[in-house]
Amino acid sequence: MGNEELLQIEPQELQFPFELRKQISCSMQLTNKRDNYVAFKVKTTNPKKYCVRPNTGVVMPHSTCDVIVTMQAQKEAPVDMQCKDKFLVQSVLASPGATAKDITSDLFNKEEGHNVEEIKLRVLYVAPPQPPSPVREGSEEGSSPRASVSDNGTISASEFSTGTRTHAEPQVLRSHAEAQGLKSNVESVDNSSEVKALISKLTEEKNYAVQQRNKLQQELDLLRRESNRSRGGIPLMYVIIVGLLGLLLGYILKRT
C-alpha cells in the first residue's frame, strides 16, 4: 500500500480456520503512519454472522489498532468451503485529540465533502490447524544407533535417546509383569468371591432345611401327645361306664 493511504491494513484477507459449531476469530491491524488522527469504521455484508470489536475508533498518529472479527458458530459448512462475505474499512481524517466518542455517521458521509477512503477485504475459509503428531518411538527403535561425541565431550542427542530407551526397556518389562500379576490377583479375587458366594448360598439352604425339620418335628410331637391323650381317655370312660352299670344292676337286683 502507498503512503498516501490514511490507514494501512494487515492482512488483506480475513482467514478463518473453519470448524462447525464453533466461534472463530481473527484479527486485523490498522496502522496510522501519518501525523494526523484517523477515524475508522468497519462494515460487513453479513452483520448477523460477524461481530467486530471495535467496529469504530480513532487511530492516533504513528500508532496501531487491533480489530477482532469473530464469526458466529455455523451449523453447516458452505459449498466447496467458499465464502462470499466481505468487509469494508472506511477511514477519514479526524480532529486532533479526537476519541471514539467523537465519531458520528456523518463523519463518513461523502456527500458532505469528507474524503473517505475505503478498503475492501474478502473472507477465506482455511483448514483448522492440526495438532502436533506424537513422537513415534517405534521408528527410532528400528534405526541403528548414531552415537557421537563432540570435541568438547558432549554426547549427541541421538546417543542420549538410545541410552534412554535401553534404560527404559527393563522398566517397561517390569511394568508389564506387574500388570500381569495384578491381573492374576484380580482373577483370583474374583474366583474366591464366587466360592464364598456359593458357600453362603449352601449355608442358607442348610439352615432353612434345619428349620423345616425342627418345625416338622414339633408338629409330629404335638400329634403324638394328642394321640396319647385320646388313647388314655378310652379305658377310663370304659371303667366309669362299667361301674355305673354295675351299681345300677345291683340296685335293681336288691329291690327285687
UniProtKB/TrEMBL annotation:
Composition-biased stretches (Polar residues): 141-165
Residue ranges crossing the lipid bilayer per the database entry: 234-253
UniProt domain MSP: residue ranges: 6-126
Family matches, as InterPro entries: Ig-like_fold (IPR013783), MSP_dom (IPR000535), PapD-like_sf (IPR008962), VAP (IPR016763)
Keywords: Coiled coil, Membrane, Transmembrane, Transmembrane helix
Pfam families per the UniProt record, alphabetical: Motile_Sperm
GO biological-process terms attached to the record: endoplasmic reticulum membrane organization; endoplasmic reticulum-plasma membrane tethering
Keyword hit for Transmembrane: yes
Protein name according to UniProt: Vesicle-associated protein 1-2
Organism listed in the record: Coffea arabica
Gene field: LOC113726816
